[in-house]
Design brief:
This protein is α+β, with helices and mostly antiparallel strands and about 400 residues long. The protein has helices at about 25-40, 55-60, 85-95, 160-165, 285-295, 310-315, 325-340, 345-350, 370-375, 375-380, 390-400, 400-410, and strands at about 5-10, 45-50, 65-70, 75-80, 135-140, 150-160, 165-175, 180-185, 190-195, 200-205, 205-210, 215-220, 220-230, 235-245, 255-265, 300, 325, 360-365, 385. It folds into three domains: about 5-105, no CATH class; about 135-265, Gamma-adaptin ear (GAE) domain (Immunoglobulin-like, Sandwich); about 285-410, no CATH class. Strands 5, 6, 7, 8, 9, 10, 11, 12, 13, 14 and 15 form an eleven-stranded antiparallel β-sheet that branches. A hairpin with a 5-residue loop joins strand 3 (about 65-70) and strand 4.
């Protein structure tokens, strides 16, 4: 009996990682697959999730999940995080051990992660540092009468206070898509946008122009932070953006006008950007050790950046279950070092940040991906909600059974 392997392309877990941005079309997802094949130098076949993300949702929304399916189509093993050693044991149980198992070193795989940038400048436009706790919003790019691609792709985020208190900060970022090898033409007018808001929604300013750049061309994002207030409204904001774009081969340089609908609801398939917050600089030695693990120096520590021996501790520190250790969680860690114990009230407040509809409890739909992994463990009455009492009980079990919990979740 043989074994067939497949990669599944799902929604990007970390947009902007290595420069890639969220694709808007199935064609662009397929282009990403071609990029992955080239960079990984792998012959494993790929399956592509449709733009509705049906496969991602059906498989539990985990970022790096792993499934073993028998010849009858039955899922016999599933993991929310891939584990090569355990996978090999699972396959040996199904098809038997092999005499000469393949090691990674046998594959002669060389990651080709560096994309040549040519002479186009990067790092000339300062990035905006965002408030803590921003979440992606659902956006709908207008494809009507759209001849050219969305060379610059919008990412819209809002802090959670808008979703709960109806007042907050709106982030608009226009990121060049590396699939198209283009750059901003700074010799002409800079990027500008205009927002039209539905009744009950106010954004200030509703118009914006990106800064003038001395360099004739660059590839940096164009970013804006806006104040927003909103009454309950299901109608989207209408965004129109204008910019000039050139391809890196200097074969065209064109003006572009594109439109978006921005919905004031969280996009649970939008992923999280890993560069956003900086670690507290007044940290103790253990935090300095964590920073050394931050391989891409984005100020946040991701699960795939830590060694396997630290992953159990990672699960305990990642109190908001977003698969990242950020500034706030390291501040909590600092307090834990001093107090040896985080307060149950603080844990409840932190987890209730995910309570988007403000009903005093977190539903399975509201929970971030890694909280969903622990959801059944927290949801003791199995009503598909985790309320304040269940959060307090989970905290007590977390404190008293941290090691056992970490072992079960790995």
């Amino acid at each position: 009996m043989g074994v067939k392997f497949y990669y599944i392309y799902k929604a990007l877990a970390h947009p902007e990682l290595r420069g890639y941005v969220t694709p808007f079309t199935l064609r662009e997802r397929l282009m990403h697959i071609q990029e992955a094949k080239k960079q990984l130098d792998s012959k494993i076949e790929w399956l592509c999730d449709p733009m509705s993300n049906n496969i991602k949702h059906a498989l539990g929304n985990a970022q790096n999940s792993e499934f073993v399916i028998d010849p009858k189509g039955i899922v016999v093993k599933r993991r929310f995080w891939s584990n090569p050693e355990k996978l090999r044991k699972n396959l040996e149980e199904l098809v038997g051990a092999v005499k000469n198992p393949t090691a990674v070193s046998d594959l002669s795989m060389e990651l080709k992660l560096d994309r040549p940038m040519g002479k186009i400048s990067i790092g000339v436009v300062p990035r905006i540092e965002l408030p803590h706790g921003m979440v992606p919003l659902k956006i709908l790019p207008s494809q009507k009468k759209q001849i050219v691609p969305f060379y610059a792709k919008l990412r819209a985020e809002v802090d959670r206070s808008l979703l709960t208190q109806r007042k907050g900060t709106l982030y608009l970022g226009f990121h060049l898509d590396p699939l198209y090898a283009v750059h901003w033409n700074n010799r002409i007018k800079p990027l500008e946008f205009e927002l039209t808001c539905p009744h009950g929604v106010n954004v200030s300013p509703a118009q914006g122009v990106s800064p003038t750049v001395k360099e004739s061309a660059d590839k940096d994002p164009r970013e804006f932070l806006l104040d927003i207030t909103s009454k309950k409204n299901d109608e989207p904001l209408d965004l129109i953006v204008r910019y000039f774009i050139c391809d890196d081969a200097d074969t065209f340089c064109v003006p572009v006008i594109q439109r978006y609908a921005i919905y004031l609801e969280q996009d649970f398939d939008g992923g999280s950007v890993r560069r956003r917050s900086r670690l507290d600089r007044g940290v103790f030695n253990f935090q300095r050790h964590l920073r050394k693990m931050d391989q891409n120096q984005d100020g946040q520590l991701a699960w795939d950046e830590v060694p396997s021996g630290f992953q159990q501790r990672f699960l305990q520190l990642d109190i908001n279950s977003d698969n990242l250790l950020d500034e706030h969680e390291l501040q909590v860690l600092n307090k834990q070092k001093r107090n040896r114990r985080q307060s149950a009230e603080g844990f409840v407040r932190l987890m209730l940040r995910n309570d988007i509809d403000s009903d005093g409890k977190v539903s399975l739909e509201e929970a971030p991906e890694r909280m969903r992994k622990r959801f059944k463990w927290m949801d003791t009455n199995q009503d598909s909600y985790v309320d304040t009492e269940e959060l307090k009980a989970a905290f007590d079990r977390f404190q008293g059974q941290g090691k056992a919990l970490g072992g079960r979740l790995r």
